[in-house]
Amino acid sequence: xxxxASFIPRLTxxxxxLLASACALEFSGWLPPVGWLPGWALLGALLVLPAxxxxxxxxxxxxxxxxxxxxxxxxxxxxxxxxxxxLVVEGTVSSLPSRQGFGDRxxxxxxxxxxxxxxxxxxxCEGLGQVSLSWGTPKSGAQDDADGPSADxxxxxxxxxxxxxxxxxxxxxxVNPDAFDTEQRMLQxxxxxxxxxxxxxRLQDEPAWQQGxxxxxxxxxxxxxxxxxxxxxxxxxxxxxxxQDEGRWALMGIVTGLSLGDQAAMGAEQWGLFSRxxxxxxxxxxxxxxxxxxxxxSAGCLGxxxxxxxxxxxxxxxxxxxxxxxxxVLVPGMLTAFGYALLSGWGVPSQRTCFMLLAAAVLSVGGxxxxxxxxxxxxxxxxxxxxxxxxxxxxxxxxxCAVLALxxxxxxxxxGGMEEGDAxxxxxxxxxxxVGQWWAALRDGARNQWAATVLLTPLTIAFxxxxxxxxxxxxxxxxxxxxxxLTPMAIGVMLLAPVFPxxxxxxxxxxxLQLGWLMAFLRSLDALPLASIQLxxxxxxxxxxxxxxxxxxxxxxxxxxxxxxVLCLLPLLLASPRHAPPDALVVTALDIGQGSMIVVEQGxxxxxxxxxxxxxxxxx
Length: 620
Description:
Blueprint: H1 8-28, H2 37-48, H3 54-75, E1 86-93, E2 98-100, E3 103-115, E4 130-136, E5 161-169, H4 182-188, E6 191-202, H5 212-238, H6 246-260, H7 268-277, H8 287-311, H9 315-321, H10 325-343, H11 348-366, H12 373-386, H13 394-411, H14 433-464, E7 466-468, H15 471-496, H16 501-526, E8 532-534, H17 540-554, H18 562-573, E9 586-590, E10 597-602, E11 605-610
Parallel strand pairs: 4-6
Antiparallel strand pairs: 1-3, 1-5, 2-3, 3-4, 5-6, 7-8, 9-10, 10-11
Helix pairs in contact: 1-3, 1-12, 2-3, 5-6, 5-16, 6-15, 6-16, 7-16, 8-10, 8-11, 8-15, 10-11, 11-12, 13-14, 14-15, 14-17, 15-16, 17-18
C-alpha cells in the first residue's frame, strides 16, 4: 500500500515548479502564444520521464497550463466595439456591495448577454464572465420595471438575479509610473468590463445548490451581506446622528473591516495612518486572526471531549476512546479556519493560513517528519494554482515572507539559554518560575518582530517606496492589542448582533472606546519626526543585495554575518532618486483617463499643463 506521505516530495517539486513558472510569466512581461502551448506541454511531458530532467519537464507543463488560463481570462474581456453600447445582461450579484457616495458598486456574474438592438450587426458578448457595475438610485422620472418579484428593492444583494440594461467599457485604467495597477487588479478578479446600470428588473432567484461552487460563494456573500446589515443597524442604533461625529463613524468602519474583512469600509486617511505606522497588516483579516479563532475552537472541542469522557461509561466511553485526538483538534480547527476565511472575504492572508494549516494537518496525520517550510511552499502553490495573478500582489510576498521569517526564527535556538537540568544558581530571578515564562514569551516575541522587520523592510521599500521607522514600536503594542482583544471583540459583535443586539451594543461601545485609544496612540507615533521616510524604488541589484543581507542577518549562529548583512542593506537605504541635469528639460505625460496632463520640469521649476476632458462629460 502506498503511504500518502510518499507523495510529499513530488508535491513539493510540483509546488516549486508552479511558483517559478508563475513568477517567470508575470515578471518577464511575455505570454507565449496559444498555438505554442500544446507543443510546450508535450515537450514537458517527454522531459518528465528522465529523472534528471523532471523538474524542467514539470515546469514546462505547469507554465503551459498557467499561460492557457491567462489567455482564457483575457478572452472574457468586452469587445472594443461594444463600449458604450446599450446591452441587456442577465445574471447574479456575486459580491458584497461596496458602499459609495452615489450608490453601490457590485460584481455581477453574467449568464446571458446581448445588444438591446438585436438587428444591429455587433459582435456577441456571450463570453463575458463578470462585470463591475455602478448601481445608483433611479433618476427622477426613470422607473425600474415592475415585473418580477421584489422589484421595488432597487439595491443589490448577493445571490439576487437581475435583468439589466447596462452601458459597459473595457476594464482599462490609468497607467502611471509607480502608481497602483488597477487594470491588473481587475484582471485578477476576473472583471471583463466596468459600467453602470441604466435599467433593472428582478428575476426569480435560483437555489444556491443548483449553481455548484459559484452558488456556494454567492451564498457566503449573502451571509456576509446579512451580517453587515445587522452591523449597520446596530451602528445606527448607538449613533443616531449617523456619521455627524466623523471620528466615531470612522471607527465603526474599522469594526466592519476587522469582523467581515470589508476593507472598503475604512477610509483612505485611516489606511494612510496604518501604513505610516506599519500596522496595516493588523487592520484586515490576517492569518493571525484566522489561526487564533481556529485554535480557540480546537481547544474548546478537545476540552469538551475530555469533559464528556470523564462522565461517559459503557458503549459511549468505548466509542469516544476510539476517536483519535488528532482528529478532534484538526477537523474542527480546519473547518473553522476555512469557514471564517470565506466569511471574511477569502483574501490572500486568509488563503495562505488555511492552506498552510491544511498542509500541516495532512503531514501531521501522515506521520511524516517534515521541515516547517514545506507547508508554506504548498500553501503558496495552492494560491497560485487558484489565482495565477496573485504573484503580482504585494500582499502575497509580504505575507509569505513574514511567515518564512517566523518559521526560520522558530527553528533557531536562542543561544545562551540553559537546559532544563542546569543548576538554578546560574539563572537570574526573572528567568525562574512564572516570571521566567513571561520573560521567555517576551523574548520570543521580540525576536519574531526583529526577524519579520529585517526580512520585510526590503520588500516594503520595493513595493511602497516608504519605510516606517516606528513600525516595530507600534507593532509591539498593536499586535497583542488588536490580535487578542480588539479582533475577538469585533467578531463577537458580528455574531451577537443578529441574536442579542443589546449585548452586541454594549460590546460595540467598549470596542469603539478601545479603538479610539489605539488611534490616539498611532497618531502620537505618526507625529514624531522621521516616523516614516520616503525612499526611491530600488533596482533589481539593490533589492537582491538587500534580501541577501537580511538572510545573512537571520541565518543560524554558525552562518550568521550581521555586519556583512548591514553592508548589503546600504545600497537600498542610501539610494538617492535620479535627478536630471539642471539644464535638461524633462517632460512627463500622465494618464488621467480624460484629456491630457503633462508635467514639464527644468531644474527647480515645474509647469503643469492640463487640457481637460476630450469632450463634455466624456473620457479620452
